[in-house]
Amino acid sequence: MSGADPNLTRAHSLVESAQGDPAAVRTEAEAIIEATPGSAAAAVGLWARGLAERELGELAVALSSLEQAVSLASELQRSVDAARMRESLAFALFLAGEHQEALHQTELAARHLTGPDAARLRMQQGLIQQRMGDLDAALRSYRHALAGLSRAGDKLGEVRLRLNRSILHSYRWDVSAALSDLERAHQLAKELGQRMLVAGCEHNLGFNEGRRGNVPAALEWFARARESYRAAGVGGGNAAVLEVDHAQLLLDVGLSEEALATAQRAADLLSDAGNEADRSEAVLLAAQAALAADQIETAGRLATEATASFSRQRRGAWRTLAEYVGLQARLAALMSRPDPGDVDSRNLAAAARRAAGALRRHGWQVEALHALTIEARAEIAAGNPRRAQRVLDTAGAARRRGTIDQRMRAWHATALLRMIEGNRQGARRAVRAGLRLLDEQRSSLGATELRASTAAHGRDLAELGVAVALADGRPDQLLEWADRARAGAIRLHPATPPRDRHLAADLTELRRVEQEASEAALSGLPTDQLIRRRAAIEHRIRSRVRQHRGGGEPHTSIRADRIRHYLGHRRLLEYVEHHGHLYAVTADARAYARHDLGPVGDLGELIDRARFDLSRLAHGRGSGAAQEAAERSLADVSRLLQVRILDPIAANEEELVIVPAGRLHGMPWRVLPALARRAFTVAPSAHAWLQAQSRQRRAPAAGILLIAGPDLDHGAREVASIARLYDRATRLSGRNATVDRALEALELTPSAHIVAHGHFRADNPMFSSLQMSDGPLTVYDMERLKRVPQTITLPACDAAVTGLRPGDELLGLAAALVALGVRTLIVPQVPIPDADTPALMRALHRNLLRGLSPSRALAEAVVTADRSSPAARSTAMSFIVMGA
Q1: Are 722 and 705 in contact, with CB atoms under 8 Å apart?
Q2: Which tops the pLDDT comparison, 695 or 133?
Q3: Please, what is the angle between helix 316-335 and helix 115-132, to 10°?
Q4: Measured between alpha carbons, how far is 32 from 355 in angstroms, rounded to an integer?
Q5: CA 219, 223, 229: angle at the middle one, nearest 5?
Q6: Which of 574, 589, 577 is nearest to 657 (CA)?
Q7: pLDDT at position 2, please?
Q8: Residue 1: its pLDDT value, please?
Q9: pLDDT value of position 266
């Protein structure tokens, strides 16, 4: 019958193509509707237009088009077409949150469909059942539907079914079944030329790779899906759902604040599109991200909002899941109190027990296991360890299934129980098992930023490991446990391929845009467009680097006796911050000792004050009276700091290796009177220091690379005076000091001295940079190096500033260079003027050429500067040796 009318034939073909090219389908469908008003072709055209509008994220207008299509087809007594249209209308209604009406439409459609059409309807019913959380019923519907589609040879229907069923398998943690469905669907979609479905398969492949912890592969699939959606002209709902899944992945690697922002942005887009079903899921994910970001109140509010939304939609399974997230927020709020109440703890335990049963009934088996760990922790807080033991015996599988965060929380609950039982050895085993999961995930990642962010998952376990060591009373054990989860990203060499041409092109473009923006600003021209371009390029660089796979082996924890072997005449001083209290562990060739330094309190404020005073003195700001006031202020705060963090340790005159914790990473150590003229080294962790000590060194060489960046009044003078000290020196300055030439030269030299403006990016430390003649030399640029110098002297502002992540994970210029394998960095800790550095740096290099170690060479150079002006003395006090 359709063959008699070419418009009707074409309209039916548009229905089949709606997911392949929705924008083009809508345009052609509207032409048919306009040309044949009131006809069967117009009814099918309305159907095609509605499907295209749904794919484009315009749900409200899609509903209108589909309702018009059903009405017109029914009026024309085309019952089969009307039934198939109801099938499409049903899913659009479901997305809008009208679930009962959606099911009603499928029941009406079922009366008129047979054969392949009935199979497609059964598939649609399966999808609605799936989204409502009735996973067992959905699987049965899919199984019957696939048999019917196979008999009819309906490959397009098979693609859609497998695409939807893969998500169901993912939620049941059957990732292998999900990937099997997706690989078949992806192949068929490409054969059929269905670009929209190809994008959907790529999207779901990314989702599933993320579920099984393969983050680089997931990011790569998401990037491909984003391009495929764009090529198909699709935005709106599909693009927003992709962002929700991307947010889940960000959350899985510990980037909780970025995940929260991404999920909330996606929720807004879905709200604009009228997609209430997916919006509710985005809000729920935002609640989980807020919880991970320690925004407990926000997490509770968002979980409550998601619960109410799922209730309105009568999605009982999802409402139960939202209530489970709300329970986690209640647990976090309870555990943040100094003394959790017995009544509150018992109430939470009872609520968690009910939630576990509800989750199990709705098919959320893994989440049910983890709800039991919440119950166990609440029972522990209520003083019921035996009851907690019974619960954890039931929830033992939670340690082996689920996301890394869920599994680590299960190990944490187990370790807590062992502690309460007095079984510290069992607690240590549980903590080690959980942290091994973190090591495995970190080693699979190639991006330093992701490696650092994953430490957030191990925060509670690491703190518990320290608590066990404190209870043991053995300082060597405290040293090992404090160092176990500290600065773990630095221990693995960056895995970014150094010859990634796409990354290199992006970095080159970034430098060009930076230069254009600087020139425009100096000329008083608008820079808004250039700033937007820069942000887009930076986003592209971050996305590209995050897709790189790791290749490093999971690191092992240090052994304290190995550290003592390498210390020699030195003394290790490692600080430990635990629940607002500061400790220190010292080690030398003879013994270990633990020191209780009291509450952290206002230590951060004192450090900020010391940094401010030191910088003000180095720059000679203010009148003579102001300078004298700054000197008195610095002297006062230095004495206070020394009393708090050094005097109780009774440090003698040995050379120190200092491992800071928390805010102490920003401490200008040389302002402490006991360290003003002393040799010491600052290391990100004892493990990193030990790695550097045991790393094979290059043969000593007399040559040095000297680089002078632009816009420094005394930079050229500094490198010229240092060059005269060496038999062989390579100099890059002026126009020759480009990023590419600097990188090439750095790979060939054992020692480098770089005078350049430094810039720390607090919003993203990986874009922290040194200014070269053609633009910024970023951390991303440095990570392309195949080899690095053994020693780098870097008298640049912000060179030592780091972005601090949980687990004392450091991001920034200095941290990147240490991670790359630079053994020794000589850097200032506060912004410095370049006028007073040439004399200090010349004295430093004279001492190095005399054969002194870097720490002793710097200490003697500081003594020399101490006899100069107050500004020169303060500049010298700003410098430290980092690394080994």
Answers
A1: no
A2: 133
A3: 20
A4: 53
A5: 140
A6: 574
A7: 43
A8: 43
A9: 92
Residue (of 544, 543, 555) closest to 441 by Cα position = 555
| 133: three-class secondary structure by DSSP | coil
282 phi and psi angles, rounded to 5 deg: -65, -40
Q: What is the pLDDT of residue 176?
A: 86
**Euclidean distance between CA atoms 163 and 202, whole angstroms:** 10
Give the tens place of pLDDT for each residue, 224-241: 898 888 887 766 667 888
List CB contacts of 8: < 8 A, sequence separation 6 or more.
Answer: 2, 39, 40, 41, 44
Q: Tokens representing 356?
A: 């576990």
State the pairing for strand pair 803-805/809-811: antiparallel
- The alpha-helical segments, DSSP class H, found in 695-836 are 715-723, 739-746, 779-782, 813-820
At position 669, the amino acid (one-letter code) is W
Q: Which tokens hold the place of 138?
A: 């959905």
How many other CB atoms sit within 10 Å of the CB of residue 27? 13
Q: Sign (positive/negative) of CA torsion 523, 524, 528, 529?
A: negative
Handedness of CA 617, 622, 627, 631 (dihedral sign): negative
Q: Which of 36, 469, 21 is nearest to 11 (CA)?
A: 36
- Alpha carbon dihedral 348, 352, 358, 363, in 10-degree steps, equals 150
How far is residue 331 CA from its own chain's centroid? 24
pLDDT value of position 736: 92
- Single-letter amino acid, residue 79: S
Per-residue b or e along 790-800, where b marks 16 or more CB atoms closer than 10 Å to that residue's CB: bbbbbbbbbbb
The 769-772 sheet, strands edge to edge: 758-759, 769-772, 775-778
Measured CA to CA, the distance from residue 756 to residue 148 in angstroms comes to 70
Question: What is the amino acid identity at position 199?
Answer: A
Tokens matching residue 180: 């099997």
Asked whether 165 and 141 are in contact (CB, 8 A), the reply is no
Q: Which percentage of the chain shows pLDDT scores above 90?
A: 35
Structure tokens that stand for 293 in this block: 């970001």
pLDDT, tens digit, 9 for 90 and up, residues 45-82: 999 999 999 888 888 899 999 999 999 999 999 999 99
CA-to-CA dists, residue 477 to 48, 408, 474, 481, angstroms? 68, 22, 5, 6
Q: What's the order of all strands across the beta sheet hosting 824-828?
A: 592-599, 581-587, 571-578, 656-659, 680-682, 879-883, 824-828, 791-793, 751-755, 703-708, 728-733
In this predicted model, what pLDDT tens digit does every residue of 591-627 receive, in sequence order? Answer: 889 999 999 989 989 999 999 998 888 887 777 788 8
**Contact call for residues 609 and 592 (beta carbons, < 8 A):** no
What crossing angle do the helices spanning 155-171 and 195-211 adopt, rounded to 10°?
20
Residue showing tokens 């699987």 = 139
Q: Which residues, other chains included, contact 415 with Cβ-Cβ below 8 Å and sequence gap of 6+?
A: 426, 427, 428, 430, 431, 434, 461, 464, 468
Where do runs of H (alpha helix) occur along 56-110?
59-75, 79-95, 99-110
Rounded distance, CA 307 to CA 290, Å?
16
Type and span of the H or E element at 583:
strand 581-587
Q: What is the pLDDT of residues 704-739, one digit of tens each?
A: 999 999 988 888 889 999 999 998 999 999 899 999
Strands 758-759 and 809-811: unpaired
**DSSP-derived pairing of the beta strands 769-772 and 758-759:** antiparallel
Are the CB atoms for 572 and 659 separated by under 8 Å? Answer: yes
Residue 133 dihedral angles phi and psi, to the nearest 5° = 95, 5
Binned at pLDDT 50, 70 and 90, residue 547 comes out as confident
The whole-angstrom separation of Cα 839 and Cα 65 is 78
Report d(CA 738, CA 756) in Å as an integer. Answer: 12
8 Å CB contact between 21 and 232: yes
Q: How far, in Å, are 68, 440, 611, 679, 752 from residue 859 at the CA level?
A: 83, 40, 19, 5, 19
